[in-house]
Design goal:
heterodimer, A: 489 residues, alpha+beta, 6-stranded mixed sheet, 5-stranded antiparallel sheet, 11 helices, elongated, disordered N terminus, B: 576 residues, alpha/beta, 8-stranded mixed sheet, 5-stranded parallel sheet, 18 helices, 21% strand, globular, redox-active center (chain B)
């Protein structure tokens, strides 16, 4: 081992670690003199600290700072001379930086993606395991004093190392020892882990030897490690559209993806989502972030039904009538037609576009009747017919299904009397319309009569639409439906 | 090649040969050379052609005189038109019989017909050989799929381009069919191209009965003035490995993609292993490499293999064991996984045992010479390969040339690449039609179709340094990064490196290695320069369209520092 006399002097004076790294391009950049004075060296050896700093190397004559592209090694890895440790991006290219010493990578001071000036310490190398803690303390001090943000990996490491990772494994149903699972031919207790599982374990500092493998032949799978690390599966699932073929007699059946899920029942089939179904699923999950509430309202529809009978021969549909009524009510209550985009403000939409939910080909799509308040009933009905045709032939343009400002969902034709809709992301409210049914109604004078009554239920985003807003809107809607002449104007 | 090269001399010499196909008299070049050298000064790159080929003429003629004194070649009739499959000389059924209809045999057959030879090709299996049916072609189909899968799965990359794609999936059967359909299509193209030119395709296993005599099928015997052996190779399976074709497989089985294991061990990290790791990881498998040497990808330039490890191995779900042999591999059976016993490559001590779902044996390829009847002509294979000289002439057990017998492609082991076989075949046809031709193997490029691709031509840096030390010249390296290339950045694929190994004293290109987007297509500028003997100081003035990836190579040539800007003819090509 040869040390640069310069840093050696510094070391002996301050007992600080010394430079030990060099790039593959310019070996020994700081070794200006060929030999260090012998007594000095001896004195150095007697100093207890064997922690060396890894410096940002100068990879080209014009380089002033470098970005850490990736750490090839992670903290705790044993390094041997000549191995690549870190990849540094200079102004010209990415270069592997090798260690010229054996040791243990004790701490990473500058994490991946960050930049450090040439000569700045980017990591610490300890000679023995005992010095790791010391090196870490130094690293903490270093990253504190340097403007670099405190390395989060390090503190995480400290805590996760202490807590036994196994406690997080929620798989009590699996028999304990991995070798108990059929087919595990190695009674030696050796843990078999897949390449990705090992990589994840290293990344999340999970001790793979403490894990109980749930994979085929008791092997530790990436899912096991993720469960132990308490994270959601990040692996982009590569769904094969059909089950594993029988070609391989011993092809093991894959265990259920995430550990907490129960194994699928025998004989069950897994059908991946179509694109449309995947979009629905994604939207539904997103909707969970919006605080919604619901307000129901009974609406008498005798007058509407009479009108419907009249206009039906002219091609007017009930959907058009309801959309028109909702649009007219929205015109008077713009807040219900508004959207909350950022959680901080109201976005009032300039037009009233009624999206109408349509079940189609095993999916769900919402063609939009744009400017429903402005178009007359006949145009609206015609437009609706076109949209449904397009939806059926998958010809809808994006603006024809994603420009809605308010959604209408009607299950009345199935005899559903009331239901509850989920608010689609990006809208303020959705109206769920039940069936219109003859109901005994008592009027103010106590006279009973039989009237057609329909229950509507509106789900709204409470960040912008409050109970009174919705109630007032529903009252207006009910008035319009009960006095539908205005719809034909 | 010789005849076409002669065309470029004609503008400079008034006494140019009237017909390009006619063979130049041996002294023609001698006379023409001094004049043309001067008058062709303005032709830039072209003038190198002259210097190069005038030296070529020493190739096979010279050695032929030394080794086969007894054999005198009859003059050839070369007047036949290119599309006509000539008529054989009276005493033989054919002018040329090729055993093996792979890419090498096909290339030779096409060129033979062009040269007016009556040609037959014998195939005991399917036309197309390894490349078309069990190699390059179907694997490119799988790699096309894996490349797209990778793009669609790379959220980060897509986001950077502003694209949104929902979970990408695949249908195994569909992928496998694509590979199979492609192989069928190329096979038909190959068959039709030979049929339409009038090459006789003789079905059956070909066996050499004696000089100029071949048996095919049961007992059909044909005679031919010249015979080319192009029987190719099969996957090499080391001792102790049981291949069951289901869980322990070779590339032959893997290309059918009958099963995509969750975890596959790939034994060998050369081209084949690397390409399959690209396919399997893109389709969701995890991969463990087993490599006997101390480093992964030992065949590549060390700098390239290091970068390849960073780009193609480390970020993927791949781990590896280096410096170990797979001493025993047992297929999965009776509810047990595939087990692989690893021993230290040096000490032979047991090291580890792997348990995986499948194992792919990609430890190279072994020449296929079974039933060829080599014993009938006293030829003994060396490590299975048929020994040949630099002109692909077969050498017998006593070190003498076997007259009229040539061997090309994987069976001779010079360079186990489809296009090398084809080039060797063309070279042989040139020779049997009376033109001297030595193939410069250092000008043959190679490519590995991973994502991104790797390509190379000529020497690696260690090889170049060794040669430099022996011959006493200086070696320099120039490098350019794809990061600085506009087109690569537009594609958001800036990862990559091009490396030039050259002689600063005379500007000779010794080797070029590329890892990066479309590297396999980019290498040809360098390989052509090496083949034509073009020097850096000349090629660096060639213009490249902007913005294209080819500018990576342009930059590479421009960044090289050549001492003398005066161009000199390239040294004599050396066959390896």
């Amino acid at each position: 081992m040869a040390f640069s006399p310069l840093s050696n002097a510094a070391t002996s004076a301050t007992a600080k670690p010394t430079l030990s790294f060099s790039s593959s391009l310019y070996p020994w950049p700081r070794r200006f003199q060929s030999s260090a004075p012998l007594p000095r060296r001896r004195r150095f050896v007697s100093i207890q600290s064997k922690i060396r700093e890894i410096f940002m190397p100068a990879l080209s004559s014009t380089m002033t700072e470098g970005k850490i592209v990736s750490w090839v090694k992670s903290e705790g890895d044993v390094l041997s001379k000549g191995e690549s440790v870190v990849v540094v991006e200079s102004d010209k290219a990415d270069m592997d930086v090798e260690t010229f010493y054996d040791g243990i990578l004790a701490a990473i001071v500058v994490p991946e993606g960050e930049t450090a000036p040439v000569g700045a310490p980017i990591g610490l190398l300890a000679e023995t395991e005992d010095e790791i803690a010391e090196a870490k303390a130094k690293a903490a001090a270093k990253s504190g004093s340097a403007s670099a943000p405190p390395s989060p990996t390090k503190t995480e490491a400290d805590t996760t190392f202490d807590t036994p990772a196994v406690t997080a494994t929620p798989t009590p149903a699996i028999p304990q020892p991995p070798r108990a699972t059929p087919g595990s031919s190695k009674p030696s207790g050796k843990v078999v882990a897949t390449p990705f599982a090992k990589k994840l374990a290293k990344q999340h500092k999970v001790d793979i030897n403490k894990l109980v493998g749930t994979g085929p032949y008791g092997r530790v799978t990436p899912e096991d490690v993720e469960a132990a690390a308490g994270i959601k599966p990040s692996k982009p699932a590569v769904p094969a559209a059909q089950p594993a073929p029988v070609a391989a007699a011993a092809a093991p059946s894959k265990p259920a993806g995430a550990a907490p899920l129960p194994p699928p029942l025998p004989g069950s089939t897994v059908v991946p989502f179509t694109t449309m179904q995947a979009a629905v699923s994604k939207n539904m999950m997103e909707s969970l972030t919006v605080p919604t509430f619901r307000v129901g309202y009974p609406v008498l529809t005798d007058a509407l039904d009479t009108l419907y009978e009249k206009v039906k021969p002219k091609g007017v549909t009930m959907t058009a009538l309801l959309a028109k009524a909702a649009a007219m009510a929205l015109a008077q209550h713009p807040v219900v037609n508004a959207t909350c985009k950022d959680g901080k403000s109201f976005t009032y939409n300039s037009s009233i576009n009624i999206a109408v939910a349509v079940a189609i080909n095993g999916g769900l799509i919402t063609p939009v009747l744009q400017d429903a308040d402005k178009l007359d009933l006949y145009l609206l009905s015609q437009k609706w017919k076109e949209l449904v045709e397009k939806a059926r032939s998958k010809q809808l343009q994006p603006h024809e299904y994603n420009s809605g400002t308010f959604t209408l969902s009607n299950l009345g034709m199935f005899g559903v009397d009331r239901f509850d809709a989920i608010l689609p992301p990006g809208q303020g409210a959705i109206m769920a319309v039940g069936a219109s049914k003859p109901t005994v109604v008592a009027d103010a004078d106590g006279f009973f009569s039989v009237k057609s009554k329909m229950l509507v239920n509106v789900t709204a985003d409470h960040r912008i639409i409050y109970g009174a807003d919705l109630a007032a809107f529903l009252q207006t809607f009910s008035k319009i439906v009960q006095n539908p002449e205005s719809l034909t104007l | 090649m010789q005849s076409s090269l002669s065309l470029s001399f004609s503008p400079g010499s008034s006494s140019a040969a009237p017909a390009p196909r006619s063979r130049l008299p041996p002294d023609f070049l001698h006379i023409a050379a001094p004049q043309t050298l001067a008058s062709l000064r303005f032709y830039g790159i072209r003038r190198e052609v002259l210097g190069f080929s005038s030296l070529r003429r020493f190739g096979c003629h010279f050695s032929r005189r030394v080794h086969v004194v007894s054999h005198e070649r009859p003059p050839r009739r070369l007047s036949a038109s290119a599309s006509d499959n000539g008529s054989a000389s009276k005493s033989f059924d054919y002018d040329l019989v090729i055993i093996g209809a792979g890419v090498g045999g096909h290339g030779a057959a096409l060129h033979a017909v062009e040269k007016g030879l009556k040609t037959a090709i014998i195939e005991g299996d399917v036309v197309g050989g390894t490349c078309v049916n069990r190699g390059c072609v179907p694997s490119k189909a799988l790699l096309a799929v894996s490349g797209r899968m990778r793009e669609l799965q790379n959220d980060h990359h897509l986001k950077a381009l502003g694209l949104q794609v929902d979970a990408a999936g695949y249908d195994r059967k569909g992928v496998a069919d694509h590979a199979n359909n492609l192989a069928t299509k190329i096979r038909n193209n190959l068959t039709n191209s030979m049929k339409s030119l009038g090459v006789d395709i003789l079905t059956g296993v070909g066996t050499i009965l004696g000089p100029q005599k071949v048996k095919y099928g049961k007992d059909n015997v044909v005679t031919a003035r010249d015979i080319i052996v192009a029987t190719g190779s099969v996957p090499f399976v080391p001792k102790g490995i049981q291949v069951d074709g289901k869980t322990v497989i070779t590339s032959d089985h893997a290309l059918k993609l009958e099963f995509i294991p969750d975890w596959i061990a790939i034994v060998g990290s050369g081209y084949i292993g690397l390409e399959f790791s690209d396919v399997y990881t893109a389709l969701g498998s995890e991969v463990t490499f087993v490599e006997a040497l101390d480093q992964l990808m030992p065949g590549f330039d060390p700098e390239i293999s290091k970068l390849a490890q960073r780009v193609l191995i480390n970020p993927r779900n791949i781990d590896y064991h280096t410096g170990v042999f797979a001493s025993k591999i047992t297929p999965a059976r009776d509810g047990k996984p595939v087990t692989i016993e690893l021993i230290d490559a040096k000490t032979k001590e047991p090291k580890d045992t792997l348990e995986v779902d499948a194992a792919l044996i990609a430890t190279g390829r072994a020449p296929f010479t079974q039933g060829l009847g080599l014993e009938n002509i006293n030829v003994v294979t060396q490590r299975g390969f048929i020994p040949v000289d630099e002109c692909m002439r077969v050498v017998d057990a006593n070190g003498n040339l076997v007259p009229h017998l040539y061997c090309i492609g994987d069976a001779n082991g010079k360079m186990m690449l489809a296009h090398a076989a084809s080039a060797q075949g063309i070279s042989v046809v040139e020779q049997v039609t009376g033109n001297d031709h030595v193939l410069n193997h250092l000008s043959i490029p190679a490519a590995c179709f991973t994502h991104p691709e790797i390509s190379m031509v000529g020497l690696t840096e260690p090889q170049a340094r060794e040669k430099a030390q022996k011959e006493g010249f200086e070696v320099r390296i120039a490098k350019t990064s794809f990061k600085a290339n506009t087109k690569a950045l537009a594609e958001n694929e800036g990862e990559g490196l091009a490396k030039l190994i050259y002689r600063p004293d005379n500007g000779e290109i010794l080797g070029v290695h590329i890892l990066g987007l479309h590297a396999a297509d980019l290498i040809h500028e360098a390989s052509n320069a090496i083949a034509l003997g073009t020097r850096i100081q000349d090629i660096k003035y060639a213009v490249h369209a902007h913005p294209t990836l080819s500018e990576v190579i342009d930059e590479l040539f421009k960044s090289a520092k050549v001492h003398s800007e005066v161009s000199s003819p390239a040294s004599e090509p050396v066959a390896v």
